[in-house]
Design brief:
Blueprint: H1 18-24, H2 41-54, E1 60-63, E2 69-71, E3 74-75, H3 82-88, E4 96-99, E5 107-111, H4 121-124, H5 130-133, H6 139-146, E6 150-152, E7 165-166, H7 172-177, H8 183-195, H9 200-222, H10 224-230, H11 232-246, E8 249-250, E9 255-258, E10 279-284, E11 286-287, E12 296-301, H12 308-326, H13 336-351, H14 359-363, E13 407-410, E14 413-416, E15 430-433, E16 436-440, E17 445-447, H15 456-468
Parallel strand pairs: 1-7, 5-6
Antiparallel strand pairs: 1-4, 2-3, 4-5, 8-11, 9-10, 10-12, 13-16, 14-15, 16-17
Helix pairs in contact: 2-8, 9-11, 10-11, 12-13
Bound molecules: manganese (II) ion (MN).
């Protein structure tokens, strides 16, 4: 059935000849309508060239993964694997990027195309259907955005030849489809090694994530009377509202830890109340829409003023962080800032009369007894993942040297468990951590989160001014 009708020309329009009509009907290609090329596209292209150069003649396969199962038939919101995002600037569920210099554009993006209506998948599939999960971009649009040719995910087998190297542990179907190789771990390591040094796009995105995070902390302090009324849950909810408003969400599970909860390093229940006399430790970071995350910790008194004992502990940690941050510069060993900070912590613990031996004895690698109260390292790389580049070579990170473009946290802490008989009662259940995010520059470093109140007086003023306003 032909449902088309001749188009009536308005009487005042010029008549249309058959030749014009035929001429107008040819010579178009809708794919030439170019959406904006993503800002990250050129950076991602260079990243693909760099990883390809490390594996000459090889085919590298890096999946984005899919939404993780929560319970029953429910999934968590999808968040792509960082290596995939870093190489493509895209992060669609189930997508796979193949990097191979022998391919026409050096890479191909295997993905679910948009607008398919030739099967009933679009309205029936809970996992892939557009009517369940939202419209997908057509291949042509993604090609313009990324500069990477796109192919249907259903045609992936043609690209998964026998000797490919796969980023494992991200996509179970892909892991099953391709035999494991000893080179797989090398690929994960090489990607982490390359991601250690951030390009200008990444520094800008991290800076934005940190700025949003600082606004989130300010939101929490501005609502402190509600925190007092409702406890840790109000901290989590208030911060995460800011994270969703201006970013993708939080970059890791927020830690809102009042009183002795702060001595649990990863307290993420955030279900406790907040009482006068407690310190409240908040370790929270916004993940920007580009999926770069901040990671900041502040420890503040519930009633806005430090007690003498709390101030003594806090100022030890503050001095340790000062020493740590001062040791962050290009050419320094990665571990140097940790050693600088722990020196101060050990001296502080000695000054508090807690060490069972001299400071030198405690710092001896054969002893390290001060770690009863410091528990963990002093910082880590930061980027698309909060603990970034976790697969990097041991001799590059953590045994390597810092270089310009590294972004890392400096976060010393002291943690006195509530059942610790070796500390005086007034310190039991006190946990203090201070964490800022630094970028290594060619001459030293810049604290990107320096605008957030940090010293004892800054924090007490922060409270006083937020209450009066
Ligand atoms: Mn951290």
């Amino acid at each position: 059935m032909n449902t088309s009708e001749p188009v009536a020309t308005q009487s005042y329009d010029p008549p249309v000849s058959d030749a014009l009509a035929a001429f107008m009907a040819q010579g178009w290609d809708r794919r030439l309508i170019k959406p904006a090329r993503a800002d990250v596209a050129d950076f991602a292209a260079r990243r693909r060239e760099r990883i390809a150069a490390l594996f000459p003649g090889k085919r590298l396969v890096i999946p984005a993964g899919g939404p993780p199962r929560r319970s029953g038939d429910q999934s968590h919101r999808f968040r792509p694997e960082s290596d995939h995002l870093w190489l493509t600037g895209m992060g669609e569920p189930h997508s796979i990027v193949v990097v191979d210099a022998s391919l026409p554009a050096g890479a191909v993006l295997l993905r679910l195309d948009g607008e398919r209506r030739d099967t009933d998948e679009f309205w029936r599939s809970r996992t892939r259907g557009e009517f369940w999960n939202g419209r997908r971009l057509p291949h042509a649009v993604v090609e313009y955005m990324t500069g990477i040719p796109c192919q249907d995910l259903d045609d992936a087998d043609a690209f998964l030849t026998s000797d490919v190297i796969v980023l494992r542990g991200v996509s179970a179907p892909l892991d099953r489809a391709v035999a494991a190789s000893s080179a797989d771990a090398e690929l994960a390591r090489a990607l982490s090694d390359l991601r250690l040094v951030k390009d200008s796009f990444e520094i800008a995105e991290l800076t934005q994530a940190i700025e949003i995070t600082m606004r989130g902390f300010n939101d929490v302090v501005a609502e402190w009377s509600l925190v007092r009324a409702h406890g840790e849950r109000w901290i989590e909810g208030t911060f995460e509202r800011r994270a969703r408003l201006e970013g993708n969400g939080v970059g890791y599970a927020s830690i809102a830890a009042a009183g002795s909860h702060a001595t649990t390093l990863h307290w993420i229940d955030n279900s406790g109340s907040v009482h006068d006399g407690q310190l409240v430790l908040m370790d929270m970071g916004v993940e920007a829409n580009s999926l770069y995350t901040a990671d900041i910790t502040r420890t503040i008194p519930a009633n806005g003023v430090f007690s003498d004992a709390q101030r003594a502990v806090y100022e030890i940690v503050e001095r340790a962080q000062d020493a740590g941050m001062a040791a962050v510069r290009p050419g320094a060993k990665f571990r140097a800032f940790h050693h600088a900070a722990t020196q101060v912590l050990a001296h502080g613990l000695s000054d508090l009369g807690l060490l069972p031996c001299s400071v030198d004895e405690a710092l001896d690698p054969q002893s390290q007894v001060y770690r009863r109260w410091t528990l963990c390292g002093t910082g880590h790389m930061l980027g698309l993942d909060v603990h970034d580049c976790g697969s990097a070579s041991f001799d590059v990170y953590p045994e390597g040297e810092l270089s310009a473009g590294n972004v890392l946290t400096v976060e010393p802490g002291l943690y006195f468990q509530e059942d610790d008989l070796l500390v005086p009662p007034e310190l039991r259940g006190v946990g203090v951590r201070i964490e800022d995010d630094l970028v290594v520059t060619v001459t030293g470093s810049v604290n990107l989160s320096a605008a957030l109140p940090r010293t004892v007086s800054d924090i007490e003023n922060w409270f006083a001014s937020s209450r009066s306003s």
